[in-house]
Design brief:
Blueprint (H helix, E strand, L loop, with lengths): L11 H11 L3 E6 L7 H8 L8 E3 L11 H16 L3 E6 L10 H7 L6 E3 L9 H16 L13 E5 L8 H14 L3 E6 L5 H5 L6 E4 L2 H14 L12 H15 L4 H4 L6 H7 L9 E6 L1 H14 L3 E7 L5 H10 L5 E2 L3 H11 L3 E4 L1 H10 L3 E3 L18 H13 L5 H9 L36 H7 L4 H17 L7 H11 L2
Parallel strand pairs: 1-2, 1-3, 3-4, 5-6, 5-7, 8-9, 8-11, 9-10, 11-12
Helix pairs in contact: 1-5, 5-8, 6-16, 12-13, 14-15, 18-20, 19-20
Length: 506
């Protein structure tokens, strides 16, 4: 077992909490000791929900292990039904409670409650959070959904939207964007699940003609079940990026039998023109490293390569269940995929590749900050700042606009660097000047990156280094010294500086 400071995914019962908290009229009874009861922190502090999550814990303590913990669970389950009056209950055990093998499913069944009770078998020591969310949603759909009878009339231009959950990265705004897009195509949304769905809504899933799967990590397993048992085809394109959104529109139009033309070229899709309008020196060929869940990482790689002209030098994911398609995409890009849930491996890879932009999770944000590299967050796990009050989708045409702003703005635009070069020696606008609000007499504190090296640079090389803009000079110094050390060079000359620049620009 390896101790770790951070983790990309929690145990599978956290995935089950995300489904339960997303839904209405559903309650989760979790057999768990004190210490495993942190759902309130996750959902009310990070996602800033106005209501507590619908989770009841047994919260047994060490002294209870010598007694009847099974009876504690039965009491907690009966009390939860009496207090909350849910339409359905899901029951399971946390990773710690799993070890005492009390069988929550069997215990809840013995209570003979007058509502559906859905047992969850979530192996905490083999699987993780996204798998737990997927399995929970699948079991709910499998238990509650009633397939449509063949003779029943239905609307061929109707669909379900599957996948958005609590604690999902921009799920709330993605849902609004895609719902609006479907409505513009004349397609009726029958049920959205699990987000804001009730158990009664799950029973109606079979009434739609097809399913839109927005987040495969959560909904693909349930979508496959509905495909087999309700004869509902499902979408396979995730509409992140302009190209993928257009592919998604064509796919949905084919499934619904509607004309895609009126919405294919949306006037709000500004990313293509914006990316062409930016000085190519500061966009085309930028070396980017991408890591996240499989859906967002693969979408980011395609956008980076095809729509922004970046050079994808690294691609990885912690979603082992989707390793095969991610490896295939990495192979197309001429790189090797990094499949790991160890953030230290990711940090080592970023340090090795020295990209100019990192697209990742909350963890990569910290890694990039430590290494002095610009970063944009594209995937869960995220922190409170990635649940903005403003409208900020990732999907659809407006999502592409948001992505452009989020990814490109951390990079320095050409005009800004041009001005810095122009005014390098200006008394106010140079790296030795104090901040203007402190007055001309105040000395500007120097970072280690701005100080001269320990005699390893020739005077000509030092003067040439000073021509590099101050905001990337530290990185240029580190790269050059690393380049020299790897080649056993004791003295850095101007030629060494430019050789290092050429090496790391490849």
């Amino acid at each position: 077992m390896q101790l770790t400071l951070w983790t990309y995914e929690g145990p599978p019962h956290v995935g089950a909490m995300r489904i339960a908290t997303a839904m209405k009229g559903l309650h989760y009874v979790l057999h768990a000791p004190q210490g495993d009861t942190y759902a309130d922190l996750l959902f009310t502090m990070i996602e800033r929900r106005a209501a507590r999550p619908p989770v009841t814990y047994t919260t047994f303590q060490a002294r209870d292990l010598g007694g009847d913990t099974a009876e504690l669970f039965k009491t907690a389950c009966a009390d939860a039904y009496a207090r909350f009056q849910p339409q359905a209950i899901i029951v399971g055990a946390s990773c710690t409670a799993e070890l005492i093998q009390d069988d929550p499913g069997g215990l809840a069944k013995a209570l003979a409650l007058p509502i559906p009770v859905i047992p969850l078998e979530l192996p905490s020591y083999q699987k993780k959070e996204n798998w737990g969310a997927s399995e929970t949603f699948y079991q709910i759909v499998r238990t509650l959904c009633t397939p449509r009878k063949p003779e029943t009339e239905f609307n061929p231009r109707s669909c379900n939207i599957l996948g958005p959950t609590a604690l999902g990265f921009r799920h709330r705004d993605d849902l609004a964007e895609i719902t609006r897009l479907l409505e513009r195509m004349g397609i009726t949304v029958n049920v959205i699940a699990p987000f804001n769905a009730t158990p009664d809504d799950i029973r109606r899933l079979g009434d739609a003609a097809f399913n839109v799967v927005l987040y495969p990590e959560t909904a693909e397993t349930a979508g496959r079940w509905l495909e087999r048992n309700c004869k509902q085809p499902m979408t396979t394109v995730v509409p992140i990026g302009v190209t993928a959104t257009r592919e998604f529109i064509r796919e949905v139009a084919r499934l619904a039998g509607v004309d895609a033309a009126p919405v294919l070229d949306d006037s709000t899709a500004r990313l293509p023109w914006y990316s062409r309008s930016v000085d190519s020196t500061y966009l085309t060929g930028k070396r980017v490293f991408i890591f996240g869940d499989a859906t967002h990482a693969m979408a980011a790689a395609r956008i980076a390569k095809e729509e922004l002209g970046f050079d994808v030098v690294g691609l990885g994911s912690y979603s082992r269940e989707f390793a095969r398609p991610l490896r295939a995409l990495a192979e197309e890009l001429g790189i090797e995929a990094l499949i790991t849930d160890d953030y230290l491996e990711v940090e080592a890879k970023v340090a090795e590749l020295q990209p100019e932009l990192v697209l990742g999770t909350q963890m990569e944000r910290h890694i990039a900050k430590k290494l002095g590299i610009p970063c944009a967050v594209i995937s869960a796990p995220v922190h409170v700042q990635d649940f903005p009050a403003r409208y900020s989708p990732q999907m659809g045409f407006e999502g592409a606009n948001v992505i452009f702003d989020s990814w490109v703005h951390p990079l320095m635009m050409g005009l800004e660097e041009h001005l810095i070069h122009m005014f390098r020696n200006d008394f106010e606008f140079n790296d030795k000047a104090a901040p203007s609000h402190l007055g001309h007499g105040a000395a500007k504190p120097h970072s280690r990156a701005q100080e001269s090296g320990p005699g390893g640079w020739t005077p000509d090389a030092e003067r040439e280094l000073q021509k590099v803009p101050f905001f990337v000079r530290g990185k240029a110094r580190r790269n050059t010294e690393r380049f020299a050390a790897e080649r056993g060079l004791s003295l850095i000359t101007v030629e060494t500086l430019y050789d290092a620049k050429a090496h790391y620009s490849r």
